Amino acid sequence: ADYFTPEEMKEGIEFAHAMGKKVYVTANIIPHNRDLKEMERYFKEIYELGADAVLISDLGAFNICKKAAPDLEIHISTQANNTNYMTVQSWHEMGAKRVVLAREMTLTEVREIRDNISRDCELEIFMHGAMCVSYSGRCLLSNYMTARDSNYGACSHPCRWQYALMEEKRPGEYMPVFENERGTFIMNSKDLCMIEHVPELIASGVSSLKIEGRVKSEYYVATIVAAYRKAIDKYYENPPRYVFNPEWLKEVKKVSHRDYYTGFFFGIPDTGAQIYGTSSYIRECDVVGIVLDYDEKTKLAKVSQRNRFFKGDEIEIMQPGEDYFTQKVEVLKDENMNDIEVANHAAMTLYIKTDKPVVKDAMIRQQKD
To answer: What is the DSSP string of 114-129?
Structure first.
């Protein structure tokens, strides 16, 4: 992963705080001796930059943080493998404000933890995103096979690769590895999606619901967060009369994803939790443009192109705080205001006419054929 410089982190924290949001910094590596030297300085630095909390998975790092920045709120990462209430309570008694539980747990187990720990200890669980074949992200396959450490944010996802078997005395003769008759992707997990089970998540007693989004695009983050935000807000409006809206599920399918399932929440996953035929992502939509500006008089949106689209196409425009709307591209002009039939030059500036006002940085997407 590409990390933030202190200057970039300061800018990001100030921006988030201006929007009324908090910033939690992940420092959840499993450190070796060489990693300890810079930790004291780092924890002091992120505290002074204004971070609201730090996520830690290692006891040694926890103690360094407590000494270096005693007022910095500490959350215990899922990579600490938190699966029982004694572990959670112990972290809390040492000074942790929140504990992120392992993803390999049922909702019943989550509720049991909630019922057996201090009331002021916060719990957080994952509700959406990629699942790891190894335990809560502590996988060494990538490190061993490609020298890219998943714990440091650089996983090459070898669990998604297709494998074959080769017998020692018959080099070059590859025999297929079958988990069953459907294929050879033996470690290829489906993605977690709990958009249809918001009431059950809230009833588990957790304080925070987490979306896995490491190295994801702003389009992915905006789409997934918005869908869950709508579902959660609708639930709290009137819990007894809450009704799931299928449009929310359609939304989370419009980002690049694998087939969805509910993870471990309703019991240990069976063979249906794996994808056996392919490791490819499902992409139902492409982002075709980003709005740069909008003229209310002419109703023309200035757009930076991201993927090709044509005059006459139907597009969808999504922007903060509103439902997306569908727009037919009836007016399409280049940056010199000449009529054109297709936006086919990468990152070209163009103009489209919209029926509704749009804001800067609104995203324009198109359903794939």
So the answer is: HHTS-TT-EEEEEEEE
- Ramachandran class of 13: left when φ > 0, alpha when ψ lies in -120 to 50, beta otherwise: alpha
Reported as a single tens digit per residue, the pLDDT across 186-222 is 667 788 999 999 999 999 999 999 999 878 899 999 9
CA end-to-end span of the chain:
32
Task: Give the CA dihedral 306, 309, 312, 315, nearest 10 degrees.
Answer: -50
Q: Are 53 and 97 in contact (CB under 8 A)?
A: yes
DSSP lists the bridge partners of residue 180 as 183
Dist CA 366 CA 286 (whole Å): 5
Residue 160 DSSP code: G
User: pLDDT digits over 92-137, tens only?
Assistant: 999 999 999 999 999 999 999 999 999 999 999 999 998 777 666 6
Residue 279's pLDDT is what?
59
Tell me the two tokens of residue 75: 């959350």
Q: How long a stretch of residues is the chain?
A: 369
Spatial separation of the C-alpha atoms in residues 159 and 134, rounded to whole Å: 9
CB 248 within 8 A of CB 226: no
| pLDDT of residue 82 exceeding 70 | yes
In degrees, rounded to 5, the angle at the alpha carbon of residue 133 between the alpha carbons of residues 132 and 138 is: 65
Name the pTM for this structure.
0.84
The dihedral region occupied by 344, where left means phi > 0, alpha psi between -120 and 50, and beta the remainder, is alpha
- In angstroms, the CA 131 to CA 104 distance is 10
Q: Where are the alpha helices (DSSP H) in the chain?
A: 6-18, 33-36, 39-49, 59-68, 85-94, 107-115, 141-146, 198-203, 218-237, 246-252
Out of 140-144, 246-250, 282-286, the most confident range is 246-250
Q: What does DSSP assign to residue 282? A: B
> Which residue would you say has higher pLDDT here, 267 or 308?
308
Using alpha carbons, select from 284, 280, 283, 1 the residue that is nearest to residue 160: 280
Amino acid at 50: G
